[in-house]
Amino acid sequence: MGLLGWIILGLLAGAIAKAILPGRQGGGWIVTLLLGVVGALLGGWIGSAIFGVGINSFFSLSTWLLAILGSIVVLLIFALITRNSRRA
Question: Is 21 exposed, middle or buried (0-12, 13-18, 19+ CB in 10 A)?
Answer without folding.
Answer: middle
